[in-house]
Amino acid sequence: MNPTFLALLLGMFSFLLFLLAHIIIWRSPLGRHKGVGLLTMIAAISYLGTFATEAALFVNGKEFGWHWWLSLPFYLFLVMLYFHFYVGIDRSVSLRIVGELVHAQKGMRIEKIHARYSPAWMLQARCDLLVRHGWLTQNKGAYSCTKKGHLLAKAAYHIQRWYRLEATG
Amino acid sequence: MDPSAIQLSLLLGLLASPVVPLFHAILIRTFRRGNVRLMMVAFFLYAVLWFFLSLYCIGQISPDWIIAGLSLTGFMALGYAEAFSMISRGFSLHILIDVYVHGTRTFRELLTQYRGKGIQWLIEKRIHNLTQGALVIQKNSTLFLAPRGMIIGKTGNFIKQFLSLGKGG
């Protein structure tokens, strides 16, 4: 078999292994830890799984890991493509709205969408997350940045200014 | 398969990657808009630069180094797109920036003055974009799904259910 094609196959095999592990874990009790961090860990281990499979099968009679330079970039590209898809599905507000409308046979009033997707609930959830992960502190009802929150916000603020980004969201 | 050509292609892809934010920022400042098309143009320019640099250094065309290099440039481009999306649209990051800019912010201030427009604006903007994108039809104050929106909504709901992601957003 052509070595280039074989290397790409191994990359694809790693990706399918990653998808399988991802689905199994997400649907298991371990799925309560679901997030991009765990997904990254699964991606790393899945590629190593390819090496284990290669060692077991002694593919093509070549030296161990010969395919690395081609299969790994290809695999990383596929994984990054999937991450985009996954983050979009998981976090897209627009997709959430469209998903709500699927069940509304007679349409849905805009006020009902606002009620279901309460701005206060959205904001509270994010603020709680930021406090929990140490980016914000809360004191007498007011939020302020922690040291690391200050650094990140400052960097992001200046990057926005460099790109001349207006308010989006 | 020539590992040294692949390695050189990957190295040049990595070294050339800083041009993506540079090209993107120049395009945004030149055309005074920040849409996705300008990012695609920046990616294309990056890929072209990588290709000609690699061809010059390697000296001959071969599918190995082209596939490896394209995979890496694709990976870098997608990574940049994700980072840029977070900087320009990330809800949590913008809460952090809002707090940073003002020193402290109460919940009420964040709710009504988020990015100068309030959180309510986030939902209104998305509804506007969904109608512009012909996924949703608005009749008076009621939203209905267009056929395309129904397909996307049902697919999104199925995937979220399959991966136990909850409602998302």
| Structural class estimated from helices and strands of chain A | mainly alpha
Shape descriptor of chain B? extended
Tell me about the largest β-sheet of chain A: 2 strands, antiparallel
Oligomeric state as shown: heterodimer
Please provide the ordered H/E string of secondary-structure elements of chain A.
HHHHEHHEEH
- Average residue pLDDT of chain A: 86
Q: State the separation between the terminal residues of chain A, measured CA to CA.
A: 49 Å
Low-confidence stretches of chain B: none
Give the structural class of chain B. mainly alpha
Q: Which radius of gyration of chain A do the C-alpha atoms yield? A: 22 Å
Strand runs of chain B, count: 3
Low-confidence parts of chain A: none
- The amount of beta strand of chain B, in percent, is 5-15%
- Strand % of chain A is 5-15%
User: How many distinct helices of chain A?
Assistant: 7
Instruction: Walk across the major sheet of chain B and give the strand order.
Output: 2-3
The SSE order of chain B reads: HHHHHEHHEEH
Q: Total number of β-strand segments of chain A?
A: 3
What gyration radius of chain B follows from the Cα positions, in whole Å? 22 Å
Largest sheet of chain B: 2 strands, antiparallel
Largest interface: A-B, 77 and 84 residues
Polypeptide structure, described:
The complex is a heterodimer of chains A (169) and B (169). Chain A contains 7 helices and 3 strands. Chain A has helices at 3-26, 36-57, 68-91, 93-102, 110-116, 119-132, 147-163, and strands at residues 108-109, 136-139, 142-145. Chain A has a two-stranded antiparallel ribbon. The longest helix of chain A is centred in the N-terminal third of the chain and has 24 residues, at 3-26. Chain A is extended and about 65 Å long. The model of chain A has no long low-confidence stretch (mean pLDDT 86). By secondary structure, chain B is mostly helical. In chain B, strand 2 (136-139) and strand 3 form a beta hairpin. In chain B, helix 1 (3-16) packs parallel to helix 4 (63-89) and helix 3 runs antiparallel to helix 4 (63-89). Chain B has helices at residues 3-16, 19-31, 36-58, 63-89, 91-102, 107-113, 120-132, 147-162; strands at residues 104-106, 136-139, 142-145. The chains are: A mainly alpha (169), B mainly alpha (169). At the A-B interface, helix 1, helix 3, helix 4, strand 1 and helix 5 of A face helix 1, helix 2, helix 4, helix 5 and strand 1 of B. Strand 3 (142-145) of chain A pairs antiparallel with strand 1 (104-106) of chain B, so a sheet runs across the interface.
